[in-house]
Amino acid sequence: MERFIDGDSAAFDALFSRHVAGVRAHLQRLTGSSAAADDLTQVTFVSVVRGRGRFQRGAKVRPWLYAIATNAARDLARRGKFEKVTAEGELPDQEADAPPLRDPGLEKAVRAALAQLPDAQREAILLHRFEGLSFAEIAAHVGLTESAVKVRAHRGYERLRELLKGVWP
Amino acid sequence: MTPDEKLQAAVRAVGGERDAGSLEALKAAAHAELQTSPKVRAWWVDGVVLLAVNVALGVAASMMMSSHDVQHAASWSKYAIAACWFVFMAVASLAWLRPGGGALRWAVAGGFIVVALGTLAGLSGADPGGSFWNGVSCAIAECKVAAIPAILVVAFSLRFAARPMHVLVGGLAAASGGAVALHFHCPNGTLAHVAMFHLLPALVLGVVMLGVRRFLPSRSYVP
Question: What is the pLDDT of residue B18?
């Protein structure tokens, strides 16, 4: 990371290769759209290059990257650049490149449930529960207190359980 | 598979999968950006630029306008409070855009309140008379001195995912030069005048800047 901040493009390539799949998957879970996830992945890494002067040396890279990706998704959603759930509550078109699933019913229900969560709760539970970031890491990068993030994650998880009633557990 | 593992797998599946080749294609724009800007600008450079502009404008405005002592209860308090404004200016100019630093920005906002209360406590109460519009001219003078720093704060805030507290504290920093100028220039030492036409404009400026920033797209989404 230090070498990348100083402009080493090989270091950037290594950073990109290590994190792009995880960032892209996180963005697809946030947005429900493969096309939006691709666009936002590009935006995220362009932001990483432009804003690398703001990275606090010695800090963890992954929470910082995921905060950038989440900020980008939030801003583009606010500007209406991608649709999440339609007015009739339907999902975006199913992606042709989805991998073979062990439980297609649960995956479809999870996709719908995630789309129905408020943005703040969806972000909190995806980052904590499924990306493994600590509440402190999430709070540091989204500008909230740790307890505010915990409340959002807890409410999001409870709402997810409610939305998945009958399908999970 | 436990229920939690099933949920994890389902959520992971929602993330989709991409082959390495198509993921590599997403790198091109960032690579081009890196070629264009191999050298990075440290975050504090913008803060130092803002501070330099604030100091220059605050000092120049103070020297260009006539000085009055009647606003202040004592000469020592006049210079002590001016020193506090300069300290606030220095800290706020850097704190508003410091990465992380959420608690610091709240502390700086609290510092503004402390300096404002100190300013009010050091007033003489002298009322030279004059209309409401004399007060408005004070507020306009402060905004004129703050205009360039305010534009700089908004411009610099586009370089990252600025949150409301970033812009509000930046606005207070931008207004501090004008506050210093009025501190030396204005002959009105009444609490109502200083609160309404010297201090309130700083808060209003911050809110206006926040409104402007909200409509502008960020060039980068780094926190």
Answer: 67
| Cβ-defined contact of A106 to B6 (cutoff 8 Å) | yes
Minimum-distance CB partner of B40 among A7, A38, A72? A7
Cα–Cα distance for residue pair B192/B56, rounded to 1 Å: 28
Interface contact A48-B222, CB threshold 8 A = yes
pTM score, two decimals?
A: 0.82
Task: Please provide the size of chain B in residues.
Answer: 223
Cα atoms in the Cβ-side hemisphere of radius 13 Å centred on A58: 0
Integer distance in angstroms from the first to the last C-alpha of chain B?
38
Q: B199: which 2 tokens?
A: 């201090």
Distance from the Cα of B166 to chain A's closest Cα (Å) equals 10
CB atoms inside a 10 Å sphere around CB A73: 27
Please determine, for residue B46, whether its predicted confidence score (pLDDT) is greater than 70. Answer: yes
Task: Report chain B residues whose CB lies below 8 A from the CB of A28.
Answer: 14-16
Q: What pLDDT band is residue B165 in, cutting at 50, 70 and 90?
A: very high
Please give the pLDDT value at position A99.
Answer: 46
E-strand spans in chain A? none
Q: Which residues of A touch B4 (CB under 8 A)?
A: 169
A80-102: average pLDDT:
47
Phi–psi pair at B136, nearest 5 degrees: -60, -35
Query: String of b and e for B82-96 (b: at least 16 CB within 10 Å)?
Result: bebbbebbbbbbbbb
Instruction: Classify burial at A10, counting beta carbons within 10 Å of its beta carbon; exposed 0-12, middle 13-18, buried 19 or more.
Output: exposed
Q: Which residues neighbour A85 within 8 Å (Cβ) at sequence distance 6 or greater?
A: A32, A91, A92, A112, A115, A116
Amino acid sitting at position A9: S
